[in-house]
Design goal:
4-stranded mixed sheet, Ubiquitin-like (UB roll), 189 residues, 2 domains, alpha+beta
Length: 189
């Protein structure tokens, strides 16, 4: 295991590379060795495998530590790590992150305000974001929770072409909220 120390503005951070054991770090009695071309060489002692790797000018890397016996490859470790990091970045790019956009209103919201907020929510849903609609009850407005629930359900009904309700209206403290997810997303199923 490599341990690197980085000193950044007086703080010490430790970055550990626990991905693979290489060269002298391999302490198993016997290992299965694969050469640089991908062909199986056989089962041997790590010292012999290191010697083969040094002759080829490459590194001995344990790629499958849990196998019996562990599998090691003779390869260029720097290139191997570069390829691995590149694959991880590529996989991260392909992941789709879904954010939650919140729209707040009160119980006494007017029709025009609802239309504007509905257009914004429609835009968010079309972009693939989840939408959280929240009504805040202030002071004596707490007695109108039924009206607040109805406002949220009507609002969700306006957006039924673009999204579906994933969480029905729920009162939490002085806020009542409902969640909408875009049509066709995994949350709906």
């Amino acid at each position: 295991m490599h341990i690197f120390y980085f000193i950044i503005w007086g703080c010490i951070t430790i970055a550990r590379d626990v991905q693979h054991e290489i060269n002298e770090m391999i302490r198993d009695r016997e290992i299965r060795v694969i050469d640089a071309d991908g062909e199986m060489i056989g089962i041997m002692k790590p010292a012999e495998a290191r010697k083969l790797a040094e002759e080829a000018g490459l590194d001995l890397v344990k790629v499958s530590p849990h196998a019996k016996p562990p599998v090691c490859k003779i390869l260029d470790y720097g290139k191997f790590r570069y390829e691995e990091i590149r694959k991880q970045k590529e996989a991260k790019k392909k992941q789709k992150s879904m954010t939650v956009k919140e729209i707040r209103m009160s119980v006494r919201v007017e029709e025009h305000d609802i239309q504007v907020k509905a257009r914004n929510a429609e835009k968010f849903l079309q972009q693939g974001h989840r939408v959280k609609l929240t009504i805040r009850f202030r002071g004596r407005e707490m007695i109108y929770t039924n009206q607040g629930r109805q406002v949220l359900l009507d609002f969700a009904n306006r957006l039924k072409d673009y999204g579906t309700v994933t969480k029905s209206p729920k009162l939490e403290g002085r806020n009542m909220s409902i969640f909408l997810s875009p049509k066709g997303s995994k949350d709906n199923k």
